Amino acid sequence: MIGIIARKELRELVRDGRLRLVAALVVLLLLASMAFGWRQAAAVAAEREAAQRTADALWVDQGDKNPHVAAHYGKHVFKPSGALAFLDPGVDPYLGVTLELAAHQRTLPRDAAAGDASSLARFGTLSAATVLQLFVPLLIIALGFGAWSGERERGTLRQLAATGVRPRQLLVGKALGVSGALGLVLLPAAVAAGGVALALGEGVAWSRLAALLPSYLAYYAVIVAITFVASARARSSRAALVALVGFWSVTCLVLPRLASDAAPRVAPLPSPDAFAAAVKRDLETGLPGAPREDRVEAHLGALLEREGFEGAENLMPDALLQGFELQAEAAFEDEVFDHHVEALLDAIARQERVSQWAAALSPYLAIRALSSGLAGTDFAHHRAFQTDAEHYRQALVRALNEDFARNAGDEGWRYRAGRDLWARAPAFEHAPPDLRWALRHNAVALTLLLAWLLLAWAAAGFTAQRVRVVG
Questions:
Q1: CA 320 to CA 415: how far, in whole Å?
Q2: pLDDT, tens digit, for every residue of 328-363?
């Protein structure tokens, strides 16, 4: 019986010319946005790889100079594209991609793609994720808003009830019919996504692509259930459609804006000038409760003890002692930078969590966070890149200061290192975190999406048992 109902629902939906037109438009949007995302992701990846090769070559060919001067000169690194940026660019276009790694400073990424975009970029870009998250739910509403109310208006619901068909069988059959119609729309996009992933090669994490599929299916299952609830409760198909479009407008358009407006109130960020002034002040005087001179002396003492020179400072060559002092000052500066930058990043992360918790009111917010997290284009992945880059910067500066300390000898600041030293510095490599890490950082969104799924289908089952047979 369930199979008969499902086939009947699918046949009616396929024969509806209006729905075929809407479905065709959604398919075209999906394929077009995916093709654009593919070209964009490939171009961005090629540009960043070329820029990184150029920066590495400039570092190696910088000529002879003092190692600490070379640390001031520094080098640039570029953030690689997200694992599935062609599907969901997330917040990548609004975050910087270039980092300057040099002594005595910790910079924030700059050169965001949105900075070169037109004013229309404030409305977002059309991506496959936009179509999947915003437009496919509208298609589901168009497919299912008359699932119960339409049967009641045609008088067929009374006939079905008279034959002894149970409401739960009707619910499951109708759900399978709508799901079959939706599958016909999404199958070409799924095949295209796999083809793009193959074309992009090793840069794509297949496990993440596989995790995206059930995430979106759960989201669509929520929309199907809510559509059935509205259709069962409404007095007419028109009322059901109005209620569902209103639900879509509030959860997909209004609540995201309210969440973004509330986030800065929950976790306010300092202005760029205030942030820079706080860093400059603490570099000069030290962090609260940790004066600069005391911290530098503590780092220097620990370094001398580790190298076996404790208490023998007066017997050390000047260049060696100066090299150790440079390392101690760098360690103090790293403390200050880490304190302020990590506090800033923590505040941004709290703003992200506000949006995730707002998913309790909107399944769209849940899938948006989960999708960008699995695609590797959310803020958590951006922060992971910054952390790796900072660890690399500290190690690079420490290695250059150690070379100065051990090899300058009587030359002191006249000592020059050359290509051999620059070439020994390892290339910067950033490995994106694995799937479990991404799921852990989006646990709130995942949990709330599953909660929506359970509650929506519980409501759909409840209303199916109590659906009005006549208007």
A1: 12
A2: 898 999 999 999 999 999 999 999 999 899 999 999
Q: How many CA atoms lie within 13 A of 384 on its CB side?
A: 19
Q: Which two tokens stand for residue 164?
A: 């002894």
* pTM of the predicted structure, to 2 decimals: 0.88
The strand pair at 286-287 and 290-291 is best described as antiparallel
Which residue's entry shows tokens 């297949």?
Answer: 206
Residue 391: exposure state from Cβ atoms within 10 A (0-12, 13-18, ≥19): exposed
Residue that is written with structure tokens 């929309």 in the block:
223
Tell me the mean pLDDT in the region 185-196: 80
How does 401-432 read in b/e, with b if 16+ C-beta sit within 10 Å?
bbbbbeebeeeeeebebeeebbeebeebebeb
**Dihedral of the CA atoms 211, 217, 223, 224 (nearest 10)?**
-160
d(CA 377, CA 381): 6
Tokens representing 255 are 């609540």
CB 83 within 8 A of CB 373: no
Q: What is the β-pairing status of strands 286-287 and 98-102? A: unpaired
